[in-house]
Structures are given as C-alpha cells and as structure tokens.
Amino acid sequence: MNAGGNCSHTYLGPAIRAFLRGLPTGARVVDLGCGNGSLTSQFAEPSWDVHGVDISTSAVQEGVEAYKGIHFHVADVTGELGFLEPCSFDAVVAAEVIEHLYAPRRLLSNAHLLLKPGGRLVITTPYHGYLKNLALAIAGRMDSHFTALWDGGHIKFWSRRTLQAALQECGFRVLRFKGVGRTAYLWKSMAVLAVRP
Description:
The chain is an alpha/beta fold.
C-alpha cells in the first residue's frame, strides 16, 4: 500500500486550506477525484464530515486503509452521485481533476448540485497562460508539458479565462484566483474559489 502524496501537494494543500478557512465545525466537505486521499487529509479538519470520491478502486482502498476520518466512495465524478445528498455540502474540492475529463461541465454540474446555496467550490488545475506557454515553447518543452504520451493524462488545458467561463456557465460566481507553485505567470497550477449563489 502507498497512500502517500506527491510533490504538488506542497503548494496545492496550502491554497486549498486557505480557501476553506472559516468553515464551521461539522461542515460537510467532499473531494471529487480524491485519489488515495493523501491531499484530502492535508486540508481536512477533524471536526468536518469529509467524503472523497474517486473512480479508482485501488486508490480508494489505499485511502480507506490510511485515512480513517474520511468516508470514501468509488464513482465517476462526472456520473451520477446519488449516494451523496444534494444541497448538503458546505464545500466541494476538485484538485487536479478537471484537466483529465472529456466532459468537465459534468463535474461542475455535480459540484453545483451537491453544494448548499453559498457553498464553496475549490478547483485546482495546471495553469496555462501566454507567458508560461511562450517560455515552454522557447525552452523546447511543449511536448513533455502537454503529456501526449501519458495514457489517461491531461486532455484539457485551462487558462484563468476558460476556467472562469466554464464555472460561470455552470452557475458559479468566481471569488478568487491564486497562482501556486513557481513564480508569477509561470505558475505550475492555479487555484480558484467559486461559490454557488
């Protein structure tokens, strides 16, 4: 069993925690695309009711064994999530998931369905912007960056503008954007805080 995290958790964890700060005792939080729960465990407070959903049975099994305070479920985050009560969550997190989905609006629609009015959605995804893409092109790193040879890898490449547009289409109001990992405008990822009005 290996329920450890990866190096991205060092910059994703603090950003997610900051966007969840102030949730009350007993808050219900669900991490859509939680993997083995290692990142979920970094931002979850012991007083919260925390759930994790992932399509990988083996990752969920690792999480069940390693993180006793998290309720894990095996499911496709773009499919039916009827086992979770609609309008009952204070926060939904989807960290480094949306770039892997053919139908990302289904993830966002599920998040909207699960959240209480006023509930928070925290999304992280690799950052793409003009300066970063230019730097990658000049350095000859576009092939490795776009991971074409990675089976199951990234299939959507989000900028701040495109992610905000998708969130607004699905009924969210974007409150805050934060670039994380590396220097400004060359960020590894971006974290976005949105709310269900």
